Amino acid sequence: MLINKVSDQIKKSKYISRDLSWLRFNYRVLDQARDTNKSFFDRLKFLAITSSNLDEFFMIRVGSLYNYLDYGKERTDYSGLRELPFRKKLLDYAHRFVNDQYLTFNSELKPLFAKNGCDILKVSELTEIEQKKADSYFKNTIFPLLTPMVFDNYHGFPLLMNQLLTFGVVTRTSDEGKPQDRVTFIQIPQNLARFYEINRKDKIIFVPIEDIIRWKIKKFFRNVEIVSVNLFRITRNGDFTLEESDDLEADFVQEIKAKLKTRKKGRVVRLEVERNPSQFMMRILKERWTIDNANVFTINSLLDLRALWQIVNHRQFKDKGFKQPSSVPPLSLPSDGVDMFEYLKEHDVLLHHPYNSMEPVVNLLERAAEDPSVLGIKQTIYRLADQSRVTAALLKAAENGKHVSVLFEVKARFDEERNIKEGERLEKAGCFVIYGISKYKTHTKMMMIIRKEGEKVTRYVHVGSGNYNESTARLYTDVSLLTTNEIYAHDVSEFFNVITGHSRPNEYKYLMTSPKNMRHQLIELIRHEARNAKKGLKSGIVIKINSLEDREVIDELYKASKAGVPVKLIVRGICCLRPGREDLSENISVKSIVGEYLEHARLYYFHNNGDPKVYGGSADIMVRSFDRRIEALFLIANEELKHEAINVLYYNLLDNQNSYIMREDGTYVKKRAGTAEEAIDIHKVFYGKAFCEQEVALV
User: Fold this and answer.
1) Which of 161, 197, 297, 342 is the most exposed place for a label (fewest CB within 10 A)?
2) Contacts of 697 (CB under 8 A, 6+ apart)
3) What's the pLDDT band for 336 if we cut at 50, 70, 90?
4) Which stretches of 277-426 are assigned E, i.e. beta strand?
5) Is beta strand 476-483 parallel, antiparallel or unpaired with respect to 598-599?
6) Which part of the chain is the Polyphosphate kinase middle domain (predicted)?
7) How far apart are CA 374 and CA 588, in angstroms?
8) Quick check: is 443 catalytic?
9) Rounded CA gap, 357 and 351, in Å?
């Protein structure tokens, strides 16, 4: 009865739960692992991604929910449920997902290992010679690194680290003739490879390191009775929402460093454990961490499927997965050999990654670092590649005496430590470095190169939706703009003055920014389409984003739908809007594209009665994007580039190979090409420089 009541309440809400929507997104990623048209190794890759995604979900989203529960704060989810009923619903759904995740691994993928030149075997399945090799590896490499930590009346409970595999070994001793059980914890260091690799003539054998340790576990318990050996893994709260300081005078870098330490000992929100664990140990763990069965996930297979990355990335199989085509030249940049400083004086360039390489941006920055005419470089940085060429260029520019200003966002989740280290390197080289704006996260992506050319100074501007990360630029779809247009240059220069100094410009001509005006300006654009529809004029909205969650904007889209505006949304992940509900959103459709590349671009199209306005940039339609982040959307003013951006949206809407259609109840169904319909895969079509010469109709 209670279950039906909860389900009815969720169905009645005009919003979809953010967290339940996220879990549905991870199901779409899991669907890639089930796709028999993909290679075996690509399927393993997507399964590993679902595991990484779920880890972050528990650390951040479930962690956030526990912030409310643990601090006694009230919270009502978009579904209409309060904290405790929602916790039950969310964790029930998470259990269902994990069951489906392991069903995919055990039933669909494990049987295919042998056919693909590899296998995951236990020590007991190895030959005698192979077991001797495993024994030697244990003695020389594993054993010296492991530290047993007993918990009993004389030893306190040890700090167990987040997301490390841990053995809980229950032993029994007789003190004064009375049997006494105690538990000892052994954590497996993260710098040990998850699998011990053995080369056989016809295949590579991957032996889980935990199986080798279990095989030799008695080495740690000489002359002691072992009652049970249990492998588990914990996930701790990594969300700091309620703890973040509003003290603008605080040393914010030190604050972030302190928070990184607390991440290691945040409250436990999930316990993954092998089948049939010791009830003695489980009772201790549940009491210690204040968790119950809803937080416990029993795993009947390989614990932590992120381990599959070692197989996917193995040198023996590097050519067995997806083969990325070579990038194609941007439509607005006819050849690679042009002098970008000269070309950009007369032309704007729109880049569509990864189909267009990020090289024009990186090359421009590297050349600027060496060019004696360049006076300065300003840049925002959110995420960087390992061995970043961007950082190297900025260091070189500083060494060459140029003024370099960099805003490093130290709240970029899970990249905090790297960004702090890179920022400190730049500081030592003489760069002016700002480590974020205390209570806001700087998520915008901007770069400006200031160059003296004769009697004048030219400002070269880059704005985009993606990070300055050469590695992910090959895996994420993004859009970016290179220009010397003075209006962009003025706006971006003003924006840098805002985020690095103390300036409040009245307005920008080509930029929309948050936290000040972005929500209001987007709402006004939506309302303008609604007014046109009511007047009988042509109208329409097409938006491509990662996430849609902000209630105020959702409500305006509902009103626009009622006014007759056709609204087409391409939302990769979270979508809290209900499409196709009678008398609410009948004119709204939602699709999600999940495939070989991570759809990361943000594009906003407003019909404007035949004179479209198109924006690109860093912002999704989320409360955090409007209220807690520094974001920017840029108007694509050049008519040719606007046409290109509209084409990107056009083919996104046509895609029938990677698309999922969202139903009114929040579920998704895979879109299939009809028998007479051309198969359109946008992760392939843009390598053919897809572009319609005629104006395309988006709505």
Assistant:
1) 342
2) none
3) confident
4) 296-299, 349-353, 374-381, 403-408
5) parallel
6) 130-311
7) 49
8) yes
9) 8
* Domain at 444, CATH number: 3.30.870.10
Last residue of a domain, one of 504, 537, 572: 504
Mark whether 629 and 682 lie in a shared domain: yes
The CA distance from 36 to 274, in Å, is 29
CA distance 604 to 355: 20
Question: Which helix (H) or strand (E) is 255 found in, with range?
Answer: helix 252-263
Question: Average pLDDT of 350-357?
Answer: 96
Helix or strand holding residue 532 (H, E): helix 518-534
Range of the domain at 607: 512-686
Per DSSP (E only), the strands in 39-177 are 118-120, 148-151, 165-175
Output the CA–CA distances (angstroms, integers) from residue 15 to 6, 62, 578, 581, 661, in the order listed: 15, 19, 6, 11, 17
**Does residue 334 form part of some domain?**
no
Instruction: Give the position of tokens 């307005």.
Output: 507
Q: What is the dihedral of CA 626, 632, 638, 642, to 10 degrees?
A: -50
Please indicate, yes or no, whether residues 125 and 255 belong to a single structural domain of this protein.
yes
- SS3 state of residue 679: coil
Asked whether residue 489 falls in the same domain as residue 610, the answer is no
As a whole number of angstroms, the distance between CA 527 and CA 557 comes to 9
Query: Which residues sit in the known binding site for ATP?
Result: 53, 476, 572, 600
Residue 313 and residue 296 in contact, taking contact as beta carbons nearer than 8 Å:
no
Residues 102 and 142 in one domain: no
CB count in 10 Å sphere of residue 690: 18
Q: Which of 576, 581, 533, 580 is nearest to 554 (CA)?
A: 576
- Contacts of residue 388, Cβ cutoff 8 Å, sequence gap at least 6: 422, 468, 469, 470
Rounded to whole angstroms, how far apart are CA atoms 637 and 513?
17
Among 471, 504, 537, give the residue marking a domain's end. 504
Q: What is the per-residue pLDDT across 266-325, written as a single tens digit (0 to 9) for each?
A: 899 999 999 999 999 999 999 999 999 999 999 999 999 999 999 999 999 988 989 999
Counted residue by residue, the chain has a size of: 699
Give the CATH number of the domain where residue 262 resides: 3.30.1840.10
Answer yes or no: do 7 and 82 share one domain: yes
10's tokens: 């969720």
Query: Residue 295 carries which side chain, given as an amino acid letter?
Result: N
Based on the fold, state whether residues 176 and 274 are members of the same structural domain. Answer: yes
The active-site residue out of 347, 353, 443, 607 is 443
539 and 490, same domain (yes or no)? no
Give just the sign of the alpha carbon dihedral 571, 575, 579, 584. negative
CB of 437 closer than 8 Å to CB of 515: no
Cβ-based neighbours of 19, under 8 Å, separated by 6 or more: 57, 61, 62, 65, 77, 86, 90
Taking only the tens place, the pLDDT of each residue in 522-573 is 999 999 999 999 999 999 999 999 999 999 999 999 999 999 999 999 999 9
CB 403 within 8 A of CB 437: no
CA 348 to chain centre: 30
pTM for the complete prediction? 0.93
Q: Are 291 and 272 a contacting pair, CB within 8 Å?
A: no
Does 39 fall in a domain?
no
> How many domains does the chain contain in total?
4
DSSP designation for 467: -
Distance separating alpha carbons of residues 282 and 285, to the nearest angstrom? 5
The DSSP-derived string for 80-93 is: S-BHHHHHHHHHHH
Residue ranges in 13-39 assigned as alpha helix (H): 18-34
Binding-site annotation, residues for Mg(2+) = 383, 413
Specify the DSSP class assigned to residue 140.
I
Binding site: what residues are annotated? 53, 383, 413, 476, 572, 600
The set of residues, in sequence order, having a beta carbon less than 8 Å from that of 265 and lying 6+ positions away, is: 159, 236
Which residue do the tokens 């529960």 mark?
Answer: 69
Domain assignment of residue 313, yes or no: no
**Residue 74 included in any domain:** yes
DSSP SS3 for 185: strand
